[in-house]
Amino acid sequence: MGDYSKKRFLVVDDQPMAREALRSIALTVGAFAVEFASSYQDALYRIRNNVPDIILSDYMLGDGRSGQQLLEELRRFNMLPDETIFMMVTGEQAYEQVVSAVELVPDDYIIKPFSPDKLVLRLDRITAKKNFFAGFYREKRKQDFAAAIAFLQAQHDTEAGRPYRFEILRQQAETQLAIGDLKAAEATYRNILDKYEFPWARAGMARTMHRQSRLVEARQEIERVVASTPHFFDAADLKATICMAQGEHAEAQRVLDEVAKRTPRNYLRKRLLAEAATLNGDTETARAAMTDVITNDTMPGAIAPEDRLALARSHINSGDNISAEKILLSLRDGEVRSLNLPEQASYAALMALASPERGTSRFSGLRPAMLASKLTPTAQMDIVRAALSVKDHKLADLHTDYLMSSLDAKKVFSNIRAQYALHGREQDFRTIQKEVALRRIQQEAAAQSASTMIDF
């Protein structure tokens, strides 16, 4: 039995009797201190202020919240150190099927009712695993990712690593993906899948292919995951993201609509739904989703300026320029000045669209910077729309050329074409398309010629 006399426990449960029962069990196994959290928000507050060593969280937390959502939020805001143990407590016998499908898994789970001996057995097992990966956690925290991967590779074939061989490969693949070594990540996921068909590994494979713009292959991989594991909502998010990249905005929105109804308090998913709905021309769904985000994503620091820009954009798309102007003006001058250039460009473009008399001069003032920079696809789309509205054809055409030449071309094509058609310039858009296509053909021919010369 492990020594828990120096460990701080946090019990998260909305039922007083259940909290007291968990407290008694934690004290029985020798816990140094046991604190309570009676709700999701209470748990976030306590963890943010003093991270416990061990968290025992009920799966159902009331008010439509779950322990899984708590775990996801803790990971989203980097509030949960790798060394902290997060154990899910559930009365659902079918929980194993759910947890095997999710991407952000707890360290372990235990089904109620359970004895102190059973809890100790689980905690001892998790503690041994945490100790095994301690070197990896240390290097990752220092952001020495080469050393972190080297540690994992050195441990893979050891006797001590035998029980964790798939977790070693999973951590290796996720680290490779995080640092952008996509080929290595793909090879690691293939290594896993050659041995066992884990849904998270198949989704990881799809993610590496998506990042390499191999969209057809990525779509095929993620379709398999979505079909076989309906509780794997992150896989549905990835499918929707791939659909958007392929220009299939209606399908992306359909997928996200379905999972958002089942996870109404996942606000990252609501943001993704708003993006899909915007691209699909469903302005009311986009506006409702972003309003929900702004109103209810209450974690400190959760609402970023880009969220307010997205809400203003949805108001403009709905023809409600008054509400859009109000949202934009809610950003103080100091906040606007502190935005990065793409966000400043979006702000100026959206203000020019919502309130031409107030925003056109700001938009014109940023014109030299917008002419000299490629910016992000979202900012470029805002610029094109505003530039077309003020008849700045040079600026609109420049960023349209950038967009049509980029990996996001399929994603933005229908929206940009609609804007040009709205301003009677559809033929000009077709001309830009042809010029981009011709350049691409010339570049591919040059690359082929260079390859042939190297072969000789």
Automatic annotation (TrEMBL):
Entry keyword set: Phosphoprotein
A Pfam family this chain is assigned to: Response_reg
Q: Which residues form the Response regulatory domain?
A: 8-127
Which one GO biological process term can you cite for this protein? phosphorelay signal transduction system
Chain positions found as 4-aspartylphosphate: 58
Supply the name of the protein.
Response regulator
